[in-house]
Amino acid sequence: GFSDVCVCVCVCCSEYGEGSVTGDMCDDLCVLGLVEYQRCLYYENGKKVIEARWRGQPIILKSKLENFSSYEPLGILDYQDTAEDLSPLDVVFYATLEVRGAGNGSLAKLWGSKLRNRDKAYSRAELASLWSLLQQEEYTFLRVLQDLSTHVAKVLGSCGHFYAVEYLSAGHAWDQNIFSLDEVAVPGLQGPARGPFTAGGARRRWTAREMVHRIALSFLDMVWHFDNDFTHRLHLCDIKPENFAIRKDLTVVAIDVDMAFFEPKMRDILDQNCTSDDDCNFFDCSSRCNRRRRRCSARRRNSNLQVICEKIFRPWFSPTLLGAKAGLPLQVELQRAVQECSETDEEKGRGRDIHQRLLNILTRLLQEGGASSEGGGSWEGGSHSHTALNF
Question: Quick check: pTM over 0.90?
Fold first, then answer.
């Protein structure tokens, strides 16, 4: 309820007033009253997810644990008289040593360059606040990918152990289009709509079907990006509509990354004892059981694309949903490609071919619809960038 949230945020603001925590949202949250509570979206086991408005912009405010004191303190502060002796690169060094799963130096590489240009050392409040954020796997994950991907939610700011991400409307399994299409904006497009269905205004000239095709192309872009553009492949082990959202330009965004793992961690998770293949399933990520060794293969058998085809594309492009258009040659070709995609394991090494085939069909469908073939593009974030603790 509101009172619970108020107590939680008020405690954070009390700590800010005492100078023990800080962040680039703190003044707006605690002093200027520019963060307005809307509703509590989730409150369980200390985890809080709050919908709010920050300077009029909708945001999601999050913390994994309820109180700042629930997080482990930064040990190095116990051995220092003041934090002023710690250079910015020292901070990255200690963070890299201690943050779980970051032993490959990715944090140091990604954030070190940003910190080298910082003149002054960090205050105790900054270090303590940063440390509470780094203990939240989702925050660390989003910060690591922030400048590398348009397909993850943007971190907008923080205060103490709370951090804000962009507000995006999640998908719904019960909606035939999965995503609400009436908020889609097409900048610069005026005049009459092109299709029989418009998404709430004359300046939107894409039909619902065209929008679905564009979103599908953005899913393909995200899959390719997560498979190929980082040091390690990124595996999504909980693929369902609720864990994705779209921006107004139809870019697909992974908004719940609690079950997203880079390749080394994925191999650790899959490498378990087994008696059958059923023992080697970790939600949407699976491998095979070597019955002689009684051990699951550490190599994932299925792929992000295969699961997206099964859980998202198949319902979208099913003959029952398409109605009269289901028999059109390109639609039939798309249905077959999606079916093959959902049945093709990664082991067969045909993932790239299937990806390319889907890309070609969807692009041709868009061209047939009279629209350009570009998928959801990049998003230029709001005017407020995450600066004071810009990690």
Answer: no
